[in-house]
Amino acid sequence: MKTLLPVITVSLFLMVIWYGFSAILNSTWTKDQANRAGVEVTFSEILRDTMVQQRPLLPAPHQVIIELWDTTINKKITSKRSLVYHGWITLSATLLGFLIGTGLGILLAIGIVHNKAMDYGVMPWIIASQTVPILALAPMIIVVLYSIGLAGLVPKAIISAYLSFFPVSVGMVAGFRCPDPTQMDLLKTYAAKRSQVFWKLRVPISLPYLFTSLKIGVAASLVGAIVGELPTGAVAGLGARLLTGSYYGQTVQIWSALIGSAILAATLVGFIGLVQKYTLTRMGFAR
Amino acid sequence: MISLIFVLLFWCCAWGLNIYLSSLPPNKGIRVAIPAIFGLSLLVIWEGTVRAFDVPGVILPPPSTIGVTFVNNLDILWIDLVQTVFKGALSGYIIGCGSAIIVAIVVNRYPFLQRGILPLGNFVAALPIVGTAPIFVMWFGFGWQSKAAVVVAMVFFPMLVNVVQGLASTDVMQRDVLKTYNATYWQEIWKLKLPSAMPFAFNGLKICTTLSLIGAIVAEFFGSPILGMGFRISTEVGRLALDVVWAEIVVAAIAGTLFFWIVSLGEEKVTFWYPSHRK
Predict the structure, then answer these.
(1) Res B279: pLDDT
(2) Does ipTM exceed 0.90?
């Protein structure tokens, strides 16, 4: 309740600004049309027209919501006009990439924690790999993998994986190093093997870090999947909706794809948040 | 076959050397040498495997070819760099981060706004903002202005969230001291809140360096004049001139690393008092 009211207020405020901007931006077109037709338009007529244009510069929120409703509920999900269909294509690439990236990230973190040479040698490159604007690689990865016969899901998933492995590996290195000396000493007095230290101490204690990194990672892999869809010539997926929308000036379609991907991102992050809350409460981390 | 054996041999030697080096008492030279050897051995593996299997250049050019292309095309690469990084990414970065700091100061004044903006900002920061690129290209045209706008949209919220958290990180004690000094609102901002927000702000600034490059490059996929790194990458991929693409990626990597490095230098200078930077 303490955060709900402010959040709603700020959201409403943003909504009002959105309406305001769409009225201002779209009014030029209305005035142009009126000029050509040689009629005078009143302020209220302009206002009404800016809210219902076919190809507005900035669609009003309700237009986007109607388009969203239209393309999800009113279409069969197998139809190529359905946003659910495109969303699923993006989602499957996201999830596959997220799985690969998370697995790779955790493996790297295990190696880095247990091997000094890897820690010194690989860690700087992992960090450096993120200062490279990797999305720039996306078109090349797609084209190259296509030329060796891989198309569709896998290339997009690889881009997703690349984007999501970094937060996971960095977070898990921090998490695996979390046990303090007294805890390590205790296990040493038990003559615990390295694998036992790993499974009984490092893994449980790193779970809060894991969930935090998973949230960042899943959002990143969605971005990767969407961008991965751009250079394939816009076949299917949310990224393709963005691209075709921008080719044909279908702004409502762009915005609905954008909001659709926002909802998808929020659902994914929210789902991980739920699992996090449940797991951590059961494990006694939550206070 | 010979090159493949050489690659394997080189890899084993480099790995052995690294294991030996990491067992020595660490000093600065070793900390630089180990990643350098690792990077070098990756390059050798790349070069060797490409030669051994005769991988065609349209799939994966060897590093040596990329190096030659890089040197031969310095003029084109420089023009693209200026267009994308200096005009697009940097101006958007400055506008976006600057306005985020101003908004954060306003938000900090009103706790009600702060409670509303933080969850929303965290939400928006996780969204695929890159998707706004086609919209901004439509609004601001093909020039660098639309790229700067995408960058502003991408860096604003991560920066805002960080600075708002940073401004709120002062404790009651510190604020009370300033109150007993009868400090004005602006004195409190300048002398207490902004300095203590700096570690958070630099965290945001560092995240935003990469975001700004990504934003500027990806926005060029949606339309650009006939120069720019994103434009070059997408057209040269179409022509299967992958060595040029890789040369652009090298430029992007260098620019990204330098940008990040400059911001971290600033961080060390400004937040020398922060626990994780104390020497």
Answers:
(1) 54
(2) no
